[in-house]
Design goal:
By secondary structure, this protein is α+β, with helices and mostly antiparallel strands. The chain has helices at residues 39-52, 102-108, and strands at 20-26, 58-59, 64-66, 81-88, 112-113, 116-117, 126-131. It has a single domain, classed as 2-Layer Sandwich (Alpha-Beta Plaits), CATH 3.30.70. A hairpin with a 2-residue loop joins strand 5 and strand 6 (116-117).
Amino acid sequence: MAVRINGAARGGEFISSNLQFYIMYTNIDITQTNNYQNATQKDFDSIVQMIAMFSQVIISNDPVNVSDLNANGAPTLTGAGHIFKFAVEHPDVFTESGSPIGKLINSMDGVILNGGTIATTGSINLEFTQSETL
């Protein structure tokens, strides 16, 4: 019998509503493993929890491993990494200081994960974009 303690974040919900879509790009390994004891799964779960401090997160897909973040739409990050797409139901919930992603940037900067410290300013390893669609 499988025991799930607190579960593991993953895509697969079916929803419909007036949503705002976001894409996260990172060099930190956030591979989704379905094993809540795995370090990369813990890092992914932690990021989802940080986003959820502001709004219910609608997970659109498991993090996708890519060989070139910039070629896949990252504003400044290059090289291998992960892309994670999500949505929220509350309009402009992450807006701060004129930026539609300001709260995400400010709240995550300096947070320590198993795979490293999140840097959203300076020498960044995690960034977001707001998207019209997924």
